[in-house]
Amino acid sequence: xxxxxxxxxxxFEDQDQLDKVIRICLLQLSPSTxxxxxxxxxxxxxxxxxxxxxxxxSKISIISTSSLTLIASVFPSALSTPRLxxxxxxxxxxxxxxxxxxxxxxxxxxxxxxxxxRGFAIKLRTEEGNWDWVFNNTPIxxxxxxxxxxxxxxxxxxxxxxxxxxxxxxxxxxxQNPESIHQMMILFSDRGTPDGFYQEHGYSGHTFKxxxxxxxxxxxxxxxxxxxxxxTLDDATATRLSGENPDYGTQQMFEAIEAGNFPSWTVYxxxxxxxxxxxxxxxxxxxxxxxxxxxxxxxxxxxMVLNENPQNYFAEIEQVAFSPSHLVxxxxxxxxxxxxSRLFSYPDTHRHRLGANYQQLPVNAxxxxxxxxxxxxxxxxxxxxxxxxxxxxxxxxxxxxRPGHMDAxxxxxxxxxxxxxxxxxxxxxxxxxxxxxxEQPRELWARVWNDQERETYVKNVSGHFKNVKSAExxxxxxxxxxxxxxxxxxxxxDAVGHPHVAPLKCISAxxxxxxxxxxxxxxxx
Length: 525
Fold this sequence. Notes:
This is Catalase core domain-containing protein. Helix 2 (about 150-155) packs antiparallel against helix 3 and helix 10 (about 415-430) runs antiparallel to helix 15 (about 510-525). Helix content is about 30%, strand content about 15%. The chain contains 15 helices and 14 strands. It is an alpha+beta fold. The model is unreliable at about 1-65 and about 70-80 (pLDDT under 50). Strands 1, 6, 7, 8, 9, 10, 11, 12, 13 and 14 form a 10-stranded mixed beta sheet that branches. A two-stranded antiparallel ribbon has the order 2-3. A two-stranded antiparallel sheet has the order 4-5.
């Protein structure tokens, strides 16, 4: 059974009906069962379900990137019928995956239980290429402006002189960039120290676009919820395990899989139409905000199960390369600037870390052959035989465009021009601090957490914050907490022996919302 990805998805109000329509099942890839990077020259392989090709033939049928993102085809009629990624064509569809979990701030070999966000990366090996989910275990992040990323990471690493972690640099950055407060509150709750790697959730954080052939789309965020629940460690236990067993999370997952207690997650999506995005109180491109479940409910679409351990950790885990740019047809990135920056920065890093032909490594190669003009370079396992490495006149190509891209002949230009105008305006306020930045952290503090969770947060954050030496850094960060809740700031100030401070001044929520309203009004004139 096929499904529709696009605005029609929002019509399914009955959860059981939705389950039947878009249920998928994801299983862990066993790298030992990977097919050869390229099949024997005598074979003919179905590529993307569109055309057959001989991977060593001089007759090119398809052009793709090395991760199998389709670029061109000599069979444009093959794309004439609206279709979905093969992953969603049929209830019970299964694909193999490779998963890697990690901390963010620590070096290789650092403690698994350190207070730190966790990387939650999944490579789905579909018939149409690799689709990478480069997620975290929190639904938001510290930044929404990619230009700040290097500065942020430097402050979380070691001091260049002492080679020690630097609390002053850590809090100096956060205080100067108050949009980080939401993530920082989650980090210093017990969710900042999850009980291993498989008893935690995974979140796309970024917004993606799931498209139809007519150019319409919905915005989507993906959530993977651990079937056993999100389990955490208190600060004392996490600290103790850091010394007693720094590999606690790695050992826990390996032994669970070996014993047949396979970790599993239920995969959900949240959907938002462009019209809803224009009316949403928060910026659709803002990585520091969540989509409330009451407005945009979680919709189950499948199951992810890890059922086999790697046979060689270096070959199958250390060498795996994830990138948000590894997408499949009809799945597109949004204009989120942090996501846009990751699209190119991840492959660039992989070329430095693993080499120019890193996508030919068995753990990174798609399950079907690729065809493009890329040749040579170090470690070129597959060089595509005698196929021309340029667009030659005696072997012309007819470009059909990538599936899922907007078709100008059916596209609603007026609709899209209006929404693009809105998106362009949304960029303007991503580096502005407003009252909107403190609403969700305030909700977390005042209504989501109970008294014990509030007490835990104050204790955890004060234990780290008390090590700051600079009075200026302390006062600035306390003003950020005061903008969330004055009582919260005062409790932390008392815990570290600092005078109470007034809330940080920022522009009003009304100014931001009025600007958005004016964008919409102007586009209709």
